[in-house]
Amino acid sequence: MAETYRKELVQRIIKNLLDIQLLRMVQAQPVWGYKIKKKVEANFQIKLRHGALYPMLNSLEQKGFLTSQMQTTGGRARKVYTITKSGEEYLQSYYAILKDQIEDVDLK
Questions:
Q1: In the chain, how many domains are there?
Q2: Is the N or the C terminus of the chain less surrounded, counting Cβ atoms within 10 Å?
Q3: Nearest-CA neighbor of 23 among 57, 54, 52?
Q4: ∠ Cα 92 104 86 (to 5°)
């Protein structure tokens, strides 16, 4: 029964917490935008438009959560994103809040 709701819930999380998901992906390894787009689409069955992805990456970079560097591979220039210490701290704060929310269910 839980599998019935899994796809819907995962898609909702990705759409509503795109910044968190992007930080998690970049935390795993430095990556460029198109690869992020393809990973999100493959892993979560969500169509991620460039118009949502790149403004979010730019916003995360402006907040100091990501840095980017142009890299050329095979004659192709790519903007590769890396998570910063602030980005790591932001994710840790998210995880702590999520843990508190799960554990603090008060059913009085």
A1: 1
A2: C
A3: 57
A4: 10
